[in-house]
Task: inverse folding
């Protein structure tokens, strides 16, 4: 390490940011492309779980139970996201953000492609759902490791005054992934309608992942390592056991940060988890809309989510992360209460309106998340901190949201129970946000580790 070039000679400024706008554009482009491919794969599974997996892999359990089992496999993968976050956090804090991003991209793409060629229950029996669950677990491990690396590459490369906007770049991969997944499924529902969709149409979007993974890999290879990590490596200040240090000093902060994301994630998984798709297209349900129409509506709402995520990132630099979140929570609460009344009208136009309204709050509470998380944790354990907080928040929020929604409707006969459940999660996220101090603009480099280690939790001076 003693022969490594200094950060000044390597083109880095003393504040830990890249000195050229061209490098920054490459980072933004690479994080958007990479996370889009990752979340396309992840959401494709969730949408297929709502549309076809219950019939193809779990049918012997009976119509109602088969669908619940299908949604449970969506949530099961979330239980393995902390494992991915632990592994990625350890590797990312010791060996760099870039290497983790390459590994997670390949793992996710390979798992998704294999799902596209997986035989169904009718062909190989119980081995079919077992293999499906195994591949979903690998997706969960990959998703748990992906997010932290992507957001830190974006935020740690960003100018201080634009961290929230730069951090919104990998966040855009989520609505873009949903848009791409829903769009491909909607296209295949038209190309291969009815039984053809069940036989082979659903497989095509999964097989497309192989091509997307090659594109994502090529783009990410062109990106330089995070300047903050290079600075740590040059000074030989990498932590030996970052996860141990994280939980020894910042356990409460991890929990509060997880609750912030849980509020957003529970609501978001009404569409990304496939619940609305299943509820609105179920021929035996109260809505009974065409699959292609509902997938089209979800695709349109993904565009709206994309726009408001970018707006949330931009506003986060203007008024601060915390204030942006609070506005977003208020908007999300409105969206939660109008969603099902509009869906239950059986009008595809009003269903689309309900989904679009929901995305206003989703975007405003997702756009500034990367900057908020990155500014909460010290440089030496930042990858572990943001990754594990995100993974735990996903478990507490979206992991079993579709399963809970399905069970609530079956138990009560009304979607109002789902509305109150989602509203409770939004309030929980808002309270967690209020507990945190806004640390917008705090220096991110290792020179300021002492300042970063002061707890952002109100009422505490140290973590």
Result:
């Amino acid at each position: 390490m003693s022969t490594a070039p200094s950060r000044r000679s390597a083109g880095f400024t003393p504040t830990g940011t890249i000195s050229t706008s061209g490098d920054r554009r490459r980072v933004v482009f690479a994080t958007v492309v990479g996370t889009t491919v990752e979340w396309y794969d992840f959401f494709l599974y969730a949408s297929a779980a709502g549309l076809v997996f219950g019939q193809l892999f779990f049918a012997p359990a009976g119509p109602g139970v088969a669908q619940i089992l299908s949604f449970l496999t969506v949530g099961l993968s979330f239980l393995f996201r902390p494992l991915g976050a632990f592994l990625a956090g350890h590797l990312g804090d010791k060996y760099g953000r870039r290497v983790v991003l390459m590994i997670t991209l390949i793992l996710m793409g390979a798992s998704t492609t294999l799902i596209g060629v997986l035989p169904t229950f009718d062909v190989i029996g119980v081995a079919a759902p077992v293999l499906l669950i195994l591949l979903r677990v690998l997706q969960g491990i990959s998703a748990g490791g992906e997010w932290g690396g992507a957001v830190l590459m974006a935020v740690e490369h960003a100018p201080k005054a634009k961290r929230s906007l730069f951090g919104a770049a990998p966040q855009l991969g989520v609505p873009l992934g949903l848009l791409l997944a829903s769009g491909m499924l909607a296209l295949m529902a038209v190309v291969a309608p009815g039984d053809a969709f069940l036989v082979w149409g659903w497989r095509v979007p999964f097989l497309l992942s192989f091509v997307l993974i090659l594109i994502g890999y090529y783009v990410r290879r062109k990106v330089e390592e995070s300047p903050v990590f290079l600075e740590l490596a040059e000074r030989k200040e990498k932590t030996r056991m970052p996860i141990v240090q994280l939980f020894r000093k910042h356990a409460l902060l991890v929990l509060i940060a997880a609750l912030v994301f849980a509020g957003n994630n529970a609501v978001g998984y009404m569409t990304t988890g496939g619940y609305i798709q299943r509820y609105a297209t179920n021929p035996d349900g109260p809505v009974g809309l065409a699959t292609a129409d509902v997938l089209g509506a979800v695709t349109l709402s993904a565009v709206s989510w994309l726009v408001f995520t970018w707006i949330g990132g931009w506003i986060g630099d203007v008024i601060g992360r915390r204030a942006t979140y609070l506005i977003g929570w208020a908007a999300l609460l409105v969206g939660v209460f109008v969603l099902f009344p509009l869906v239950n009208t059986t009008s595809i136009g009003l269903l689309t309106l309900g989904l679009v309204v929901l995305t206003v709050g989703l975007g405003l509470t997702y756009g500034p998340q990367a900057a908020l998380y990155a500014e909460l944790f010290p440089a030496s354990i930042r990858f572990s901190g943001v990754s594990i907080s995100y993974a735990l928040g996903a478990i507490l929020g979206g992991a079993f949201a579709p399963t809970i929604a399905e069970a609530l409707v079956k138990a009560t006969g009304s979607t109002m129970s789902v509305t109150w459940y989602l509203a409770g999660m939004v309030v929980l996220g808002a309270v967690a946000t209020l507990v945190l101090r806004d640390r917008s603009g705090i220096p991110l480099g290792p020179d300021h580790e002492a300042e970063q280690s002061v707890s952002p939790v109100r009422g505490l001076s140290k973590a």
In short: Confidence is low (pLDDT under 50) at residues 1-19. Residues 239 and 321 are 28 Å apart (CA to CA).
